[in-house]
Fold each of these.
Amino acid sequence: MIKWRVFTALGFALGLAMMWAAGPAAAEKVDVSAVLAPVDSIKLDFEDGSKHFVLFVQREGKAEGHGLLAGADVTEYGMHDLIKGVGGKPRGYLVYAMPGGDKAYIKWTVRAIFVKEPGQAKPKLLDYGVWEVAGGTGAFAKLQGVGTMTIKPASKTDRRFTLTGDLVIGE
C-alpha cells in the first residue's frame, strides 16, 4: 500500500513537472504585409446620388514579413461597403495558404473614413481595423490569434493589407 502511494505521488509530481516545463503555448508575434491584386470583382453602384457602392472582390498576393503567416499565398474574399468621400465598414476573410498546403482563415473588419486634410483637394482614406483567426487546416488546425490591420492603396487597383498581432498554435 505504501509503495502504491509513493508511485502515485511520484507519478503526479513527474506529471506536474512536465506540464510546468512545457508551459502554455507561447504567443508568437506576427507582422505580415501583402500587396493583393484583384482577380475577380462584382460592384453594385447605388443610383440614388448617394455615392454609395458595394464591392465584392477577390484579390491575391504573397505575404512578406515575420511570423507564422510569412511566405504564404494570400487570397482576400472581401465586401467593401462604402460611401465615396464619407466612409464605410469593409470586411471579409483572408486565406493564408502555406507552400505545404496548410491554411489559416482570417476574419477581418475595418472602419474606413475619408478625412480632408488642410491644403489637400482630395480627401484621404484611412482604413484601420481588427482581425482574428476563424479556422485553419493542417498545422494551423488549432491556430488562435487576434490583432490589428490596415489597408492602404499600393496602386490604383492593388491594396496592401498589413496584419500585426499574436498567433498561438493551441493544443
Amino acid sequence: MTVNLKGKTLRGDGTFQIFQVASGGKLLISGGGTITGGSGENGGAIQCNGSLEITGTSNSRIVIEKNKATSGGGIYVKVSETGKCNISYCDIQDNYAATNGGGLCSGVNTTISYSNILRNRAMTSVSDRKTDNPNLGRGGGFYFVGNATVKPVNELIATTVNDNGCMWYGG
C-alpha cells in the first residue's frame, strides 16, 4: 500500500491504530504530514507485519506523534526475516509504550536517516517489573527485538535522538 499524506493530518481518537499491514505486506508513506492519536497493542500509529518505508523530504517531513501502544508507541514492525524498515525525514516524537519502544519497536533490520526521535517514553510499573518478564520498559526512543539491527551509529545520518526515557533500560 502506498499512502501520500499530501501534508495532511491523519488523526485517530485514541481507540484504534491508523495503519495495520498484514503479514508480508508493504507500506510506503510519503508526502509530508502528521499521523497522530493512534492506539493499539502493537504500534499506536502503525503496526507493520512486513516492510515499512517512511519517506519525507527536507521540506516536507512526516511526523508521527502522540500515539500509544503496549509495544511500539508510534511504530511497531513485527519480527521477520524478509521485512525491512527504512525511515527518512521523519519526526517520531511524544509517543508512549507501556513496555518497549516508546517511539519505535522493530523486529527487522532498520535504517534511519535525517530524522528526529524525541521525547518518547517506554514505561512500566514497578509491580509489572517484578514479573518474570525481564523485557518490560526498554528503549524510550527505539527498541530492537530478535535479530533486528539498526545501521551503525555513524550511519544514522543526521538523525537526532534526544530526551527519550524509559523505566529500566535504554532511554
Amino acid sequence: MRIACANYPKLKIVFIVDGKNKLITGSVDSLILDYLSNTCNVWHEFNTTIKSESYNIKIGWDSSPPVTPKYFTSVNLIRVHTGVHINRINNILKNVFSEFAKKYKFNFNPEDCLSWIRIYINLNIIDTSFEAQTKVKLERKTDLSIMDNLEIKIKKYFETDKKLLLELLET
C-alpha cells in the first residue's frame, strides 16, 4: 500500500491497527525515509539543483540481511530500476571508499562498499534516453552531468564523520 501511495501523491489510506487509525500518505520521500529509518543504522541525503535539473539521493547502510544492495529509483517521476544512473553511483561509491581505504591503510575490495547499502535516487533531468518504451532502464546516452559534484559531496560527508567511515571500511 505504501508503494501505491508513493505513486499517487494525493492518495491517503487509513488502516485501523489495534484500534488506532494509521494514516499512510502518498510521498516517495516519506516512504523511503520511513524505510531507511526503520532498517538502516545511518543514512545521509545529497541534493543538487541546477536550472531545471536536480537530484535527490539518500544513501543508507542496512545492518540486517540481505547483504545485497537495494535501489529505489525514479527518473522524471518514472520508476527506473536499472541503468547508467545506478552504475554511476556505484562507481562513485567505489572510488570514494577505495580512496579512503588507501588513505587509512585498509585492505579493501571496492565491491565491499555496496554490501548492505540502500539507495534512493530521484533524478529530474532534461536529456534522458531509455532502452525501450517500457522505460525500465536508463541508457548511456542520458546526460548525467547533474551528478558531477556527487563524489565531492560524499567525500566531504565522510571527512566529517570519520567514525562512520572507519566502521564501514572495517565491515
Amino acid sequence: MIYSSKGFTLVEVLVSIFIFSIIMLAVGSSFVSALNVQRHAFNVQQVQENASYVIDTILKEVRVSEILPPVPDSCVDTPAVGDLTVGHPDFGPIHYYMTGGNIIRENSDESLQLNSNAIEFTNFKFCISGSELRDGQQSRITMYASMRSTKGGQQEIIDIQTTISPRLLNN
C-alpha cells in the first residue's frame, strides 16, 4: 500500500516550532537590550543638557558681576560654600543656592528654579578666591556640582567642576 504524504509529520512540526522559538528569543533579547541602551543614552543626555543649561546661566551672570560680599578665600582653610551671591549690573544682587535637589536663582524680583524636574542635584558648592579688595588676585569661583536623573530605572550620575572669572578687575 502506498501512502501519499502531503503534510508535515509531528516531529517536523515540533522541530520547526523549537527553531522558531530560539530565533524569536534571540530577537526579543536583542530588542530589550537595545531599549535599555536607548534609555541609558536618553538619561545621560537629559542630565548633560540640564547641567549645561544651569552652568551656562550661572556663568553668563557671574562673568559680568562682582562677588557680594567680598569673602576671604573659601578654598584654602574652609570647605567650599553652598551658596553664592553676586552683584549683577542690571538685575542687582543674585543669589544661587541648592534646596531640595534644585538649583535656585533668586533676585529681588523673582525666585526661579534653574534645573528641570527630570534631574536632581546632589551637590552644589562654590569655592571663592580673590574676592577681597586689594589682595592682588583676580576673583575666581570654582563650582562643584553633582547631579542625577530622577526618571527611569537607571540613575545616571554626573559630576562637574568649572572655574568662572568675573570680567570685573577690582584690584
